[in-house]
Structures are given as structure tokens and as C-alpha cells.
Amino acid sequence: MKKINVAIIGASGYTGLELIKILIQHPHFNITYIATTEGGTKASELHPALLGVFEQEVFKADAKEVAQKAELAFLALPHKAAMGFAKELLGLHVKVVDLSADYRLELEAYEKHYCEHEDKEHLKEAVYGLPEINTEKIKKARLVANPGCYPTASILGILPFLAYLNKEAPIFIDAKSGVSGAGKKPSTTAHFVSINENIFAYNPLKHRHEPEIAEKLRLFSGHNFEVNFVPHLLPVSRGMLISSYVQTTEMIDAKAVLTVFYAQSPFVRIRENPVDIKSTAGTNFCDIFVSQKGKSIFISSSIDNLLRGASSQAVVNANLMCGLDERTGIPIIAYVP
Amino acid sequence: MKKINVAIIGASGYTGLELIKILIQHPHFNITYIATTEGGTKASELHPALLGVFEQEVFKADAKEVAQKAELAFLALPHKAAMGFAKELLGLHVKVVDLSADYRLELEAYEKHYCEHEDKEHLKEAVYGLPEINTEKIKKARLVANPGCYPTASILGILPFLAYLNKEAPIFIDAKSGVSGAGKKPSTTAHFVSINENIFAYNPLKHRHEPEIAEKLRLFSGHNFEVNFVPHLLPVSRGMLISSYVQTTEMIDAKAVLTVFYAQSPFVRIRENPVDIKSTAGTNFCDIFVSQKGKSIFISSSIDNLLRGASSQAVVNANLMCGLDERTGIPIIAYVP
Amino acid sequence: MKKINVAIIGASGYTGLELIKILIQHPHFNITYIATTEGGTKASELHPALLGVFEQEVFKADAKEVAQKAELAFLALPHKAAMGFAKELLGLHVKVVDLSADYRLELEAYEKHYCEHEDKEHLKEAVYGLPEINTEKIKKARLVANPGCYPTASILGILPFLAYLNKEAPIFIDAKSGVSGAGKKPSTTAHFVSINENIFAYNPLKHRHEPEIAEKLRLFSGHNFEVNFVPHLLPVSRGMLISSYVQTTEMIDAKAVLTVFYAQSPFVRIRENPVDIKSTAGTNFCDIFVSQKGKSIFISSSIDNLLRGASSQAVVNANLMCGLDERTGIPIIAYVP
Amino acid sequence: MKKINVAIIGASGYTGLELIKILIQHPHFNITYIATTEGGTKASELHPALLGVFEQEVFKADAKEVAQKAELAFLALPHKAAMGFAKELLGLHVKVVDLSADYRLELEAYEKHYCEHEDKEHLKEAVYGLPEINTEKIKKARLVANPGCYPTASILGILPFLAYLNKEAPIFIDAKSGVSGAGKKPSTTAHFVSINENIFAYNPLKHRHEPEIAEKLRLFSGHNFEVNFVPHLLPVSRGMLISSYVQTTEMIDAKAVLTVFYAQSPFVRIRENPVDIKSTAGTNFCDIFVSQKGKSIFISSSIDNLLRGASSQAVVNANLMCGLDERTGIPIIAYVP
Q1: Domain range summary for chain B, segments of one domain joined by +
Q2: Which residue in B48, B53, B279 is closest to D49 by CB distance?
Q3: Which residue(s) pair with A4 in the sheet?
């Protein structure tokens, strides 16, 4: 089969590195262009672990060059920077998987929680890249908004139960993330001594992934649930655990509901025991466990925040957009132990 | 002031060590007897960090010897073993602070969740040793049941809001504990490789601290709230963070409610920012932060699971039982950084 | 190309898991038999992360069944158990890569440091499976003794300098290992609370890998160097860093010596900056850095203790024994970040 | 006894916090002045763990104010800033314990490894504050240079053996430090993801503590030993382990030498088993273990890098300078577990 040329824009961060790691082992994608905002370096200088493995030159990001070299581009840029670049690429007929928040939300919500939107036109056609839900739309999309890490794991856990939920009751989501989710930039918060032997909530009830979760649950269910989302930082590099607390109107068999819902989903695993983050770290899996007491349901979902929460999900989306089987080249073997 | 002689029964575990650490610096208590189930060793052999600091002999636990040497005994024994020993000590007129679960619950609840109770007589007089609530009762008690670690932090967080809560809505408690809470005994769960870079729930909706929390909230409020409690194990040695999610009937000023409630409590600190576990590790403090969105309230409370969750709270109780100021000799300086 | 059938004996530990992870992605090896001492389970029960990925049945180890199903067997058994099984397999014409210590040492040294040898006959033909040195011998071997983790990283670091070393001066090796090197079995030492926020030497100057290192350095150099080896346990799951301190007779250009020595070695990377363990974790690489001050040389080498120190090196050996390119199916992309 | 007023200059970092923690519990010292470079804050804002414990105002550092309020000042400032301030304080008859490197080295060595010295006059009278060696000098000093963390643990380990060492053989020191030693300032190196699950050497054979160790060993022994020092960063917040490798001319009983040497030292503990860093974390102890093989000696020494390596050693020095018993108010109870 002919190789499909792809570009990575924004290669210096953790998600850029994960994209490189997946794509150099992918049987059908071929990385023909890598860029950062500054350029003038090599992949193995940005990421020393790549020495002797992948030493490709890294350019200053240029949309026209992308268009000459690749059919599809992964954007691992900060929000705002991403939409500027995506707009240009789409105009040059390059497909885009955007890992930023720029095309995830409806216009009003986006502008409320982020900034003015600079590519309203393409925003309308963007498809929310959660493959379990939007497979068919993703296949036809030329612009996919890759979901946030917290929304991916939260939505996958809650989705099967939406039809059974008490519409008056709020949904509580207690999220725990590894520090890589906060990016590579040094900060007091990310300092080893701040994180090690510690845990704390941040932006409780105010994190920008809360409206993303709420919007998607509303779009999927037709009901505007109250979503209360509290993220915590864990003394862990990689991994994300979501504990969701919901209430149903009637007694249900929660395990059966979950199992049926994901019977055809290759990247969701239903667990008999509470999930951990080590069993998904390194993979695109979302592991889910459910427990119940009367009408109160506890859902525990686990993903790798950099893979299922970003880069491997992006490649699943790219697979679908390019007519490949969604599983092609997607990591499924965990880093454990 | 005359020294008060005290005994530690069950000195080999983490809470035994913490009792030693506090009591050797306490201005009025004097450790005159230390015991384990086996005896025949020294404190600095059980806990090598005590070499050159505290090398007292450790005996095979014997109630009569305790009675000869001490006025008050701390029992850091497993449940069931504790009540056998407490019964004997009380008969010999020794005051008891029991760190196990044996005297925490009403009879029926205890026997449902633990085992048959072997000291029903004293169970009736036991006082639940949460000093913020039961100060006066503790002062007169000769048997105090030291609260569990999860209940301590959960109850202290939720208590101020009980009067405002929607009685139909369940309370959700998402708890995170350091591994020392699971004890010193080697196990697959406590293996470094199982815990490091990992997090997972255990006994979700089934942990034995759930009925303890529910019972105390009922006794304090007069209403039988539905309590859903899910503990998680953190890759951390020491510390506990409790995220509680509750709903009020009316809009309240949660911060003000909290501040007023604890205005006179020397060991509760109200925080402007989300609490972390490092700021309480090494101390008897319970730090509490509250955030709200409409009628949904997020309460974040942090304690040192071995101190406020066990040993330092036990010494506060002992202080009260012996007519001392509750703050005497209680650690308030955190281990941070 | 035709698939080569292989067996894994001893699949329950960490190295067994790593063998499975490599072999299910290997383009030419086909796992046809997996066993433990007890059998009667599935791979995904032994290692829950394999759920949905690899669920093959796990048998009670039986040499005859191995011989029917596989051409080559990986033995991930404890020493002593390994030689019993290897002897039987070799008699049935199955090639063996033994990950235990049983065939690593000369007879006398083995019996001094381990136990009586029960397969003296095959010991004579066993090849020490350090591919950088013994490539040609490994290609012809039917029994390869996979090196220990500490010896692999220590020898690879020191080897290039042997010809230049002061024969009167001792070699000092300060080794640091992740806890997975100590195995999966619960113990006080491996308890999270013992390891976390801690570091300590163990078996200093007495570890059984010391004679292995000394013997191999003697065999390669013809001189019996004094080797002083001190291993430490790190609060890390995976990874190994070796700091070797040696003295040369003359001033040399240490970096140049190193670079020339490994010019043709695909799995050794020479680093400009001190090596870390994250850049090799997940790979078969040995990264080496060297620094010098006069005739004193500091060599820092890093490997993944479970891969280059065990399972991936075992598969490199199997590749060579089966006529494949040594790089076939060997992991080179690190787990970082 | 009358309280002695002391000042802390440089209260924002980790060592400043540790000074506060020790001094607020000290029976004879009274903190009357706290300052940072910027001032205008409170101790509990710099260090939130101090909320409700110690809320003293923090001023912009001013030498005249110090002189009015305190007899002795602890300087926890960066090198260069420290000597400017110390000079002024000494002129105002304030005793100084300087935690920086400014008065630790002889002039030539200082200027080679740091910068031009701006207080050459006082440099001559400064006493190196290692109490095990310089007790009498410290008692009479008005300026004490508090030793570096690595030198403290290295020198204490090697000192007892100096008389027995082979003068031709280099000393190798393999040091491992918790990240707090690198300070509070955010950096790529100190980022949680860089440190966690990792270890690496830094500045091997080039660290500025190497000449400090070499100079002190020369001054104590009269011989200029070759010292090769390689520090490593550990995934640990607090603690330091030093592995020293030395060679003697004759066979000695290393354990006996060590034991005799420190028979009168209240803050050195000789261990039967390899030392760990948890048993000294939180204390002023230096724990030492020694092992030998012929004339090769392995010395393992452990300290708390922030306490024995900085702040508690500074208070021991202040005790001596003020005529107090050196043990007064010095922490000896470890943070373990």
C-alpha cells in the first residue's frame, strides 16, 4: 500500500513526541515534515531519547511547505496558534487533526472560555474526534478537533448511562491527572518538590474542560446536565483516572449497560476490578469499571493522558480520515510494569 | 507539673511509631511501657530511625503490667485484638485511647461490618474521639474510640454544611490516601511497582469507613444521609485528601459557613486555595477549602493520615482525658518541603 | 518468511511479561507455548494489562510439550529451576535462552556463589549472551546464558577501557537499580513505603553480580581486575544507572576510545551529556557517557533493567541463534516522558 | 534563661523555611527579624504550611535593622549576595552563620570556582562550621561558614579513614541528592517529569563542592588527595546519600576505626546495615555505614540535605557561638515513614 505523507506541527512538547513515536512505527503514515515555532533543530535534539532512532530535521512551521509535503497535518500547538495555522492548511487542501481546543466547542462556549475565534468558517465543519461516537463523521472530515484528555475519559465513562440518568441530579467528576498533562514548561506547580508526595485540586469547578464535557453530554443526550468537574494533579508523569458519580432514575444493571454499549469498540475495555492507570499507560485504551449502590453509580475510567487523551487518539482520527482501519499502528501494549 | 505515665500497646506499626515520636517530645506524658504482641525487642530495632534517640525496651503486651506502670494506654492494635485488651485495661482502671475500629460504631453496625463484639459493656460508654465535636465528653471519658482516618477528614469537611444539605441528595466522597494507611505488612498491593506511577480505587462503595462516616453524620444531623464513599490509593507514603461533593437546598455562602463553624478550632485551618497534603503532613491540622457552583459544593480536606488520622488525634484525646490543654505537645509544623 | 515458534517458560514475573510484550510484536517469532510453574491460567490474568491484547492459555511447564510446539525456549525461571528445565529441553533439541544465572559463570564461581551445578555438561557449551562481544558464538549456540542486568550495563561501560586500565588499581562500580529488578514478590524491602523517598545500598561488595562482572572482565582482558561493586535500590520502577570509576595508566581520549569501540554496535549510544535512565527505559539501548580528570575516568551507563538487562537482550540473542538480524523486533523507542 | 534574638535573611527558599521551622521550636533562640530580598510579605505567604503557626512579617533585608533587633543572623542567600551582607553585619557587631559558599574556601579556590571575593578581610577569620572538627573554633567565632551539603556528608564519611589512606590512590565519591538541593526555582531540570522515574549525574568531576571537599581533606590530613566527585539527582524531595570509595595502605578494621572516631559525636550514628536517607530525613544526624574488601573501603553516609546539609547544622553552629549546648533545639526525630 502506498504511504500517506503526514506532517507534525508543534513537535517540541510531550504530545509532539508521542505523535513522532507512533508515526515512525505506523505501517502506512510517513512523516515528511516536522516543525516547531522556531525550527532549526533536529528531532533528537528536541527529544534526546530519539538519538539514533529518528533524527529528522525540524523546520520553522510553514503552511505552504506542509502543503507540498503532506496530505494531513497534526497540529500540536497551543490554542489560538492552532486555528491560525489550521485555517491556512485547510485553504491549501491539507487535512487537519487539531490537538488544541480551538475547534472543540461551539462558538459561544469557545469565546467565553478561551478567546475570540479566528476561524469561524471552519469551526462549523469541524468534527469532534471521539471515534466511539463520531466514526462516520470523522471518516468524511477534513478537520477533526481532537478531544481534551479529561473530556475523553469522562465522556467515555458517562456516555453509556446518559439515557438512565436522573436529569435533576448533577454529575460529579473527580479527575486525577499525571503532570505531563500540564506541559513541559517549567513552573512552580510543575516543580518536582511541589508535586512529589503531594496531591491537590486545581481550578475546581472552573477548569475549561468542564464546558467541553457538558456540551458533548448535552449534544449526545439532548439534555443539559449540570456537570461539576474537579481536576487534581497526581505525583505521576503519565496517566489519568476519572471518578464519575452519577444518579439514575431507576435501578439498572450498570455493568451490563456498559458492556453492551462498548461491545464493538476496540479501544474500550470493561474491567471486573477497579481500573488503574498503569494498565492503560502507553496505549490508546480507555479502561472502565463501574460499581453501584442503589441508584448511585460510580464510574472509574482510565486513559493515558498523552495517548488516548491526545496523540494516539489523533492518529486513530487520522486513520479514519484516510480510509484506514482505525486500529492501524495504534499502541495497545501498556508500559507496565 | 507532674508527668503522666502512659503506655503504647502495638508499637511495631506506623501509628505506633508516630505515637512514640509525639510522646517522647510531649512535655507532660512519659512513656513508661511499650509493647507488641511478641515483645523481646527494643524501640530502635522496631524502628531503626530511633537509634540513639529512643531505645526503650519493648515488652510482650500484658495488661497487668500496664496497670502498674501507666494511667493511660494507647492501643495501636488490629480491631478485635484491641477490644480484648481494652476490656482488661478498663477493668484495671487504666484509661484507654483505642486507635482501632472496635469502639467507633454502634453495636449493630460494628457487627455487620467487622465481627462479633466482645466488649459490649464498654462499647456503651466509649466516646468518639473527634475533638471538634466531642470535647466535653472526651474530657470525662475513660475510653475514647479514635476515629478512622477517612472519617476524620470526611466528617470535618462535611460537618459545617449538614444543616444546609438537601436531604434527598446523596453525598459523594472521593478519597485519596497515601500507602502508609494500608499498614506495614508486605503485599502485592503495597509493592512499590504496584503503587508507583499508578492510582486506583479500592473497595469502592464498600469500604468499612463508609458506615462510620454515615453513622456520625446521622448522629450529628439527625438525618440519615446516603453516603457514597470511594477510596483511592496514591503513590505517596503519607497524607490524605478528601474531595466531598454535596448539594444544598438553598444558595449559601459556603466559605463563610466554614469559617464561622471552625472559628474556635485550633486544629482546623480554612484555606483560600485548594488544599494540598504536604501542608498538613507531619501535623495534626485538617486543612479545608470549599468551592461552589450554585447549590453544588466541593469540599477539599487534607490531613496526615497517620497523625490527624490516627496518632496525633489520639494524643489530643489523651490530653483532654488527662485535663491538659488539647494542644499540648501536638505537632503543628509540617514536613514540607 | 516462515514464523519461528518459541516458548516462554516462567511467564508470571516482570521479565516474562516483557518477553510477551516483545514477542507478540515480533515479525518472525510466534509464541506457541507459555508456561508457569503452576499453569492453569491465562496471560491476561497473570498480567491484566494484556486484557484484549493477548489472552493465550498458560500451561504448567512441561519440557516435552515445549519440544512439540517450539524450536526455542526462553527460560525466565529462578536459578536452579532453570538448569533443570534447560537440561531437559536441550536433550529434546530445543534451543534455550536462559535468563537466570545458571549458565553465566564458570563452574567454580557458580558453585561458590549460588549452589551445586546440576547440568555441568551443558554449562561447558553455554555462550554468554552479550551480543556486542559474542555475536559469532551466539549465532552458533544452542544454549545462551543471558547476562545479568548489572553485569550488562557495567561491562558495556568498562569494556572499551580495559586495555588502558592500571592493572593495580581497583575498579569501583556504584550501581543504581529500579525496584522491578528485585522481582514481583512482596517483601518489606519492596514495600512502597520502604522505597519511596528513599535510597540505600544493599549487599555492598557482596552481590552475586560482582563475580559475574569480574569473571567477564578477566576473560575479555586476560587480567584479573579487582572489582568492587555496590548496588543501590532507587525509588523507581524501571531503569538502571551504573557509575563506574576506573584509572588508566596513561592519559587517553576517553570519549574517542568509547566512540571507536562501539562504532558498529546498533544498541549502544554514546552520549554528549550524562545519561539518564528515562532515555533507555522501554528500549534495548545501552547509553554511555564518559568524563575524565587526568587518569581517573567516570563512566555512566544506562539500561532498562528489564529489557537490555533481561528480556530484550534475550530476544536479540534468539534473533542471532535463529539466523535473523539482531535488530529484528527489538524495542528502540523509549517510554519517555 | 534569657532568649537570644536572631534574624533570618533569605527566608523564601527551602533552607530559609527549615531555619524558621527549627527556630520557632528552639528553647533559647527567638526570631525577631525575617527578611527576603524583596520583603513586604508574611512568613505564611512565603510558606503556606506555616498558616496559623508562624505568621511573622517579612522585611526587605536591611543590615541596620538586623543589628538593632538581633545578636546573630543566619544568611540563607545566594553566594555573592551573602558576602556583601555578611560584611555589613559583622561591621555592626552581629554574629553571622552564612549558609552560602562565600566563606567556605580559601581565597584562591573561591575565586577560581565562584567569583571575585568581596570580603577578603573577614574570609580570614571565618570558621568552617563542621562541628565534629571545629567545635572550639566555632565557639569563639563571630563568622561561621556553614559547609555545603555534599561536603558535610562526604567529609564526615571519609575523615576517620584519612590517616589510613593510600596517598597515591584517588578518592571516588558517588553522591545522590534529593531535588530540594537544587533550590525552589522552576527549571527544566527540576520539572517533575524530568526527575520522576529518572536519575542522572550532573557536573560530573566538575561540581563546585569537589574543591571544597578536597580542600578540607587536605587541611585535616596534610595531604592533597585526588578527589573525584560525581553528584546525581534522585527522584526524591529530601535526603542525600554519599557512597565513597577509598583505599587504605594496610588492612584495617574499618568499623572499629569509625566507631572510635565518633564515640563522642552526638550527631553521628554508626550503622550495622547500609544507611538509608529516610532514617536521617528530618534530623541533624549523619548516619554512616562502612564495608570493606581487603584494602578497598566502601563508606555510605546519609544526611538530610536541608538540615544537616544546611539549616540544622547552621543552628548547631549558632548554639556553639552563643554558648549553648550544641544539641539545644536540634531535630533528631526522623520524618519516617
Answers
A1: 4-146+310-321, 150-303
A2: B279
A3: A29
DSSP string, A33-61: EEEESS--EEHHHHSGGGTTT---EEEEP
Those of residues 241-300 in B touching chain D at CB distance below 8 A are 269, 271, 273, 278-280, 282, 285
Contact C24 A334 (CB under 8 A): no
And the C-alpha cell for C16?
A: 516474562
High-pLDDT (> 70) share of chain D, %? 100
* Residues in chain D within 8 Å Cβ distance of A282: none
ipTM over 0.90: yes
What Rg, from alpha-carbon coordinates, does chain A have? 19
CATH class of C150-303: alpha beta
DSSP element (H, E) containing B219: helix B209-221
Phi, psi for residue B60 in degrees, rounded to 5? -75, 125
The β-bridge partners of B30 are B5
Q: Has this prediction a pTM greater than 0.80? A: yes
Q: Strand locations in chain A, DSSP E?
A: 4-9, 29-36, 41-42, 57-60, 72-75, 95-98, 127-128, 143-145, 171-177, 200-201, 227-233, 240-247, 268-270, 286-293, 296-303
Peptide bond into A231 cis (omega under 30): no
Closest CA to D130 of D114, D144, D140: D144
Quick: pLDDT tens for C118-153: 999 999 999 999 999 999 999 999 999 999 999 999
Report d(CA A89, CA A83) in Å as an integer.
10
From the number of C-beta atoms within 10 Å of its C-beta (0-12, 13-18, 19+), residue B250 rates as: exposed
Closest CA to A73 of A52, A94, A100: A94
Contact state of D49 with B24 under an 8 Å Cβ cutoff: no
- D306 in contact with chain B, both atoms CB, cutoff 8 A: yes
The predicted-structure confidence for D277-317, as pLDDT tens digits, reads as follows: 999 999 999 999 999 999 999 999 999 999 999 999 999 99
Instruction: Report d(CA B216, CA B224) in Å as an integer.
Output: 10
In degrees and rounded to multiples of 5, residue C271 shows phi and psi of: -110, 145
CB contact under 8 A, D239 and C292: no
Nearest one of C323, C330, C318, C331 to C8, comparing CA atoms:
C318
| A4-146+310-321 homologous superfamily | NAD(P)-binding Rossmann-like Domain (3.40.50.720)
Residue B1 has pLDDT above 80, yes or no: no
